[in-house]
Write a structure and sequence with these properties.
Rossmann fold; about 240 residues; 2 domains; 8 helices
Length: about 240
């Protein structure tokens, strides 16, 4: 892991047991100030790769080096019996931050994502979209060097998606690295610096859009078109 990396992954294999090798030869890194898209069909190994990074995968062979991170899961997770503001207050209590800066920032983010009116309500009673926005607010308040985001656009309305994209680009400008797993390929194409394409638990292509196009043989193809060609080719290899 070099000094510019916020994440380095070198896995020879990984799975839920020694008999379940869902990942093979997954290697990539993320630098400060770049957005990397983790792309693949359902069941390709994206979520399993993220679990390996988070340290919650039972069987892992290889090395993973990760800086402080914030994780935004596909399915939001909150503590039962705590209001949204109590979640924010808890984050403040375990973070080494200036309260005089933290509280105004929290209120601004709540306003940005239109959650101010439910700040004293319980997130378990929120809609999926509101829960997702709550997770985004908590992650942004943590201000880590790495964001791990799993399907961030699921359940969000267009306004919230635009706000999230603005925030992601702002964090990138401040030097954070972002690993984003998503099926929304047109958006990924616009905002990601590089891509990691996974199929059947292994990396089938990686690089910027030009390099992905070269691998797919589509000189002017969209990310979606290249993805389609590369995954079909991988299936044919099997």
């Amino acid at each position: 892991m070099n000094q510019n990396d916020v994440l380095s992954v070198n896995l020879t294999e990984g799975g839920y047991s020694t008999d379940s090798k869902l990942l093979q030869d997954i290697s990539f890194s993320i630098d400060k100030g770049e957005i990397v898209g983790l792309i693949g069909p359902n069941g390709a190994g994206k979520s399993t790769t993220i679990k390996a990074i988070l340290g919650i995968l039972n069987h892992v062979k290889g090395d993973i080096h990760v800086n402080e991170y914030a994780y935004i899961p596909e399915r939001p997770i909150f503590y039962d019996g705590l209001t949204l503001w109590e979640h924010i207050d808890f984050l403040l209590s375990v973070s080494e931050v200036d309260e005089q800066q933290f509280i105004p920032k929290a209120k601004k983010l709540l306003e940005t994502f239109r959650l101010s009116h439910v700040v004293n309500h319980y997130p378990e009673n929120f809609s999926k979209g509101m829960q997702q926005k709550g997770m985004i607010v908590l992650a942004l308040l943590k201000q880590p060097s790495l964001y791990i985001i799993d399907e961030p656009f699921m359940g969000l309305d267009p306004t919230a998606i635009n706000k999230l994209l603005e925030m992601i680009n702002r964090e990138k400008e401040h030097g954070a690295g972002i690993l984003m797993s998503t099926h929304v390929l047109d958006t990924a194409e616009k905002i990601c610096d590089r891509f990691i394409l996974i199929s059947d638990g292994k990396v089938i292509s990686h690089g910027n859009l030009g390099e992905i196009r070269m691998d797919s043989g589509l000189e002017h193809g969209s990310l979606f078109d290249c993805f389609d060609v590369l995954t079909e080719r991988d299936n044919d290899d099997w």
